[in-house]
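Sync notes, pocket subgroup
Present: LS, DG
LS reminded everyone that the earlier model was apo-only. Rerun requested with PRP included. Inputs:
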Amino acid sequence: MNVDYALLTDLYQITMAQGYWDAGKTDEEACFTMYFRDYPFKGGYAVACGMAQLADMVEQFRFTEEDIAYLAGLDAPGGGRLFSGDFLSYLADLRLTVDIDAVPEGTIVFPHEPIVRVTGPILQCQLIETALLNMVNFQTLIATKAARVCRAAKGRPVAEFGLRRAQGLGGVWASRAAVVGGCASTSDVLAGRLFDIPVSGTHAHSWVMSFDDELEAFRAYAQAFPNNCVLLVDTYDVERGIENAITVGLEMRERGERLAGIRIDSGDLSWLSKMARRMLDAAGLSDCGIVLSNDLDEYTIQSMLDEGACVTSFGVGTKLASAYDQPTLGGVYKLAAVRSRAGAPWEMRLKISESAAKLTTPGVLDVRRYYHADGRVAGDMVFDVNVEPDAREVIVDPMDDLRQKNLAGLRFETLLEPLARGGAVVLAPRFRNAMAARTRAVAGLDTLDETQLRMLNPHTYPVGLELGLNDRRRALVAELRGIV
Ligand SMILES: Nc1ncnc2c1ncn2[C@@H]1O[C@H](COP(=O)(O)OP(=O)(O)OP(=O)(O)O)[C@@H](O)[C@H]1O
Ligand SMILES: O=P(O)(O)OC[C@H]1O[C@H](OP(=O)(O)OP(=O)(O)O)[C@H](O)[C@@H]1O
Ligand SMILES: O=C(O)c1cccnc1
C-alpha cells in the first residue's frame, strides 16, 4: 500500500531532525531498540507482526515536493517559519541509509526483548520511530489477539469479520495481522488483494430481509452460489431458519450440490448449535457445517466449546479487529547506543527510571532463544552483538538480579534477521509473506509450554540479560546515578 511514510510521524521527530542537522550531528550514529514491557491481554506470549509494512516504509520513504512545501509553510509558534530552507533542501534529497534488524513476522515474542533494532544516522533513526511503533505495536497486538482466539477455537477455522468495527483504515492491517496470528481467512477484500491472504464470507440478514420470506431468500442464495452456500438462519426464528436451510440443503443435494453450512449469529450460540446439529443430522445433512458468530472472543469461544457446542468454524469481528480488551501493546523505541560515525566504537546509552521496568537496556542488542531437547523453549537471552556472551550462558531477569536461569548446553537460535541494509530492504520474500508468517506463528506456539499458553494466569517466560550485559548495565546505572 502506498503511504506518505515520511510525514507519518510526530512533528517533534522532524524538529529534532533539524536540531541534529543544525548541531552538525547528522552523521552521528545511533542504535535504537524496539520492545514492549507487558504481556498483552494478560497472556503468556505475543505474536510479532508489522515487519512487512516496515519494509514497505523503507522502500517508499522520501519527502516529496508536496511534503516539503507543506513543511515549509509551517509557522513557529513564536514567529517565523518552523523549518529552515536549508534543512528542507536536505530533507528533499534524503534517502534512508539505516540498517534494520527485526524478528520475522509470526515469531513468538516476550516482554523486555528487542523485536526491532534500527542502526544508522541518528536523524534517520528518529524520523522513522513513530511509524515503526505504529505498525509493530498495532499489528503485534492484533496478531496476538488472533492467536488467542484461534487457540480457543481448537483447530476450527476462524474467519476475521472485523473491518466494519475496526479503527478506520487500520482495519486493513488488522485483517492481515489476524491471519498472521492464525485466522484462516478474512472478510476484508482489500486486505485479500493487497496481502494475498484468503477471503471468505457468508451473507447478511439484509439478504433475507430483502425477500418476502426466508425460504425464498435461501433458495435464491443457493441458486446464485451453489459452491459457496452458507445460510444465515437467525433473521426471524432460528429453529424455523434451520428448517428452511434443511429444505434448501435437500433440494441442493437433489441437484448434486451441497449446502456448505449454516451461520447462527444471535441467541445462546452453543445451545442453538446443538439443536442445529441434531436437526441437520436427522435430515441427513451431516456434511453441513455450522458457523457461529456474534460478538465472539477467546473467552466466549472457550466457554462454548467447554459446553460442547457443535461448531465447524467461527466468524470473529469486533473484539478481534479492535483488540477489544487492550487498546495498545505499549511498545517503545529506546536509544541504546551511539557512536560519532559509522565504524567508530559504540558507547552505551541508558535511560534511568525509578521503576525497574522502565530502566532501558544499553547496547546493540539481539536475542538468543534457547530450546530444550524436546523442542520446547527454555528461555531468551538478550545480548550485545559486539561482545562475546559469557560462556556460562546464564540469563538475569532485568527486573530482579536475583532471578537467574542457566541455559548452558542448550541449542539456541538468534532471533533478529536483517530487514534493511544501508536503507535497502534485504528481507527475504518468505519474511514478507503473511501466510508464511502464519505458519511461523503456529509452529512457534507449538514450542510453548501449556503453562504459557493458558488464558488464566499463565507462567512468565524467562527473558533475561546475558551476564556481561547485566554487569555493564548495572555499572552504567551506578555511574549515571553518581555512585562511582
Ligand atoms: N453459549 C454461550 N456462552 C457464552 N456466551 C454466549 C453464548 N451464546 C452467545 N453468547 C454471547 O452472548 C451475547 C449475546 O448477545 P445479545 O444479548 O446481544 O443477544 P443476541 O441474541 O445476539 O441479540 P441480537 O439479535 O441483537 O444480536 C453475545 O456476546 C454472544 O457472543
Ligand atoms: O459480532 P462480530 O464479532 O463483530 O462479527 C461481525 C458481525 O457483523 C455482522 O453483523 P452486524 O453486527 O453488522 O449486524 P447484526 O449483528 O445486527 O446483524 C455479523 O452478522 C456479525 O455478527
Ligand atoms: O461474511 C460474513 O458472514 C460477515 C462478514 C462481515 C461481518 N459479518 C459477517
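DG: The pocket of adenosine-5'-triphosphate (ligand 1) is lined by residues 266-270, 294-296, 300, 303-304 (CB under 6 Å).
LS: The first helix runs from residue 11 to 22.
Action: DG to write up.
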